[in-house]
Amino acid sequence: MAKPLLLHATASLPLRNFHKKTLVTEDTLSCSYSASPSLYAGCRSNRTPAWKAARSVERLGFRDARIGRGRYEHDGCGRERVYSAQAALQEKGGALQEEPRSAAAETLDLLEWPRVCRAVASFAATSVGKEQLQVLEIPATREASEALLELTTAGVELISLLGGPFELGALSTQVVKDCVLRTRKGMVVSGVEALSVALLLQTARNVRRQVFNTAQEFQDRGSVLQPLLDMVDPIVTHPDLEKGIWRVIDEDGSVKDSASPELRKARTQERSIEQRLRELFNKLTRDKSGSDSQSQEIVQLDGRMCLVVASDNRSNVPGLLLRSGSGASAYIEPAGAVPLNNKLNEARAEVAKAEYNVLLRLTDQLRPYMDDIQFCLNTIVRLDVVMARARYSTWLGATKPTFIDTDSQNLVRLQLKRARHPLLLQQHREALREAKAKLKTKSKNLGRLKTRPGMMVGALEEIRAAVAEAEAEVAELEENAPVPIDVRVIGETKVVAITGPNTGGKTATIKTVGLAALMAKSGLFVLAIEPVVLPWFDVVLADIGDEQSLSQSLSTFSGHLHRIKRIKGASTGNSLVLLDEVGAGTDPTEGAALGMALLESFAESGKGGSFLTMATTHHGELKTLKYSDPRFENASVEFSEEKLRPTYKLLWGIPGRSNALNIAERLDIPKDILVVARSLYGVASAQLSEVIMELEQAKRDYDQDTATADSQIT
């Protein structure tokens, strides 16, 4: 077996230049000036063994491998696992099996947490902020989560007080980050890097002033804004340093002519020689105007001006053949242009040397302030992350959550009123926006066609039908918005069994609760109305979906058991456990017995237990646990027998009932079949279904009366 490639930790990290299309290493960066000014005009990266090793890793499919840094994976509990490039190569070759993921890390994928992170990142203004938000911080302590929530609250308040967006401008935070790194290694900054530093200092000064002015204007809200004031107060922007950068760097990142007398003289000389060359080539092309038109094309090749002529006419142009192009073209440097091209290259070298000297002096001015620039960068990125969380929470219309103590005897253990799944809401809004845009386009087309003379009636009717179809699509989307649910866990309840028909919203319910817990922990507001009350769960653990694995010879049932085993090993008395279709995938009787035993074990406190477990199931036996153990509660998803479809509403305290026979009757199944089915189903079961139906109707009446009372009180 071939020895796996070893990538040393001292190898250089591949970085991409921001203003040159060259892949380089930290040792030879084309966007920084080398110690030798003669290298400035055409700096190229050395393709070192480390560079080749990195390319090998990329070819093997490990796009996230990085030389010297490895690949990081967060498990959701503040821990990281590091994968070296060597381990990645071994995994690819099958020599090393990756160890199983933790139950907490797996839960993040099951709840689609990375999609939430990407949604929040889309509200960030800086590239570094977007990168950090790709993996939202999930703190390991309640105090840290509350600190994040206070910052988000301050951000939401700032947006509200400003009455508009909070802008950070067009900052190149990654360029500044790399500039600080390279300057500390003794390299010379480029003009683009110096420009980015100046823009950072300018933005930081404006942001600091804006936050303080807002707090001064709205003094009664100053306490809410205090976390942001504490964040931006230590910023030092050094206006004189910023002015020094603008004095020598232009708005496009180039060095100004006025930066030094030597640079002005060198550029004047360069422009003079370029003008003489253009006059020479114009004269040559005029003299040969009667020959092939290709001989009049003037190009630059390797920094030298030359003519492109037809190969069969190149003998008519005395000079040096620089290159034979594809087809019938040749690149000729006329004899009279040779000395001028030589002088032009010498002048360009003088310009590069003068630019290097300017940037060297500028680097010496910046170097003593690198710590302040680094702090300024970190603060602006932190502020961007906070404001991204605030913008996302505002866009959702979410509410700040309140944590309760898990060891207290509060009556309410968890309350989410009119809660919705954030990703379902995001998906619905995007679909509605696209449908409205489509309707607007088709309506405009119809308006234009109506004013066009001689338009065929058939074509107009076709467009009208398309508009009507688009209107129907918008109306349907507006009518079918995600249905909110109410979750209220009180008293001694530690386990909630959710029953009801398939596609009724059971799984969406437990995912909504799981995401609400994660969002609150990470400093996001929760998509529900006030008050949002929930415990600070030390970890969220879920078994959702099909864990079948042919490669590991695992059935669906075995896969669920493997995952639940990992959950039992990670859960504590302060954990949230979410189980989808507990006890499914095997004999119903044995599955129900196992499901009951599992739920009873999660109702315990301490290691292997939970603070709250929510489980969906089709086993009727699990509904009976409530009547023998006060730690259990029932809930069900409502089903409309009139429309023969689920309403996606969660009925709290009511077990799910069978709808099959009633649905069959409404669908005109022959009565003799229904009579036999009901006799097999049993009188007691039928009576139980009737009682549950009456409870559901009573719950609907109660909710309607409560809503009416709330409206009247308001």
UniProtKB/TrEMBL annotation:
This protein's record includes keyword Isomerase: no
Keyword DNA-binding: yes
Coiled-coil zones: 425-480
Alphabetized GO MF terms: ATP binding; ATP hydrolysis activity; ATP-dependent DNA damage sensor activity; endonuclease activity; mismatched DNA binding; rRNA binding
Xref: Pfam families: MutS_V (PF00488)
Keywords for this protein: ATP-binding, Coiled coil, DNA-binding, Hydrolase, Nucleotide-binding, RNA-binding, rRNA-binding
Residue ranges constituting the DNA mismatch repair proteins mutS family domain according to the UniProt record: 575-591
InterPro entries named among the record's database cross-references: DNA_mismatch_repair_MutS_C (IPR000432), DNA_mismatch_repair_MutS_core (IPR007696), DNA_mismatch_repair_MutS_sf (IPR036187), MutS (IPR045076), MutS2 (IPR005747), P-loop_NTPase (IPR027417)
One GO BP: negative regulation of DNA recombination
NCBIfam families tied to this protein: mutS2
Protein name (Swiss-Prot/TrEMBL): DNA mismatch repair proteins mutS family domain-containing protein
Originating species: Ceratodon purpureus
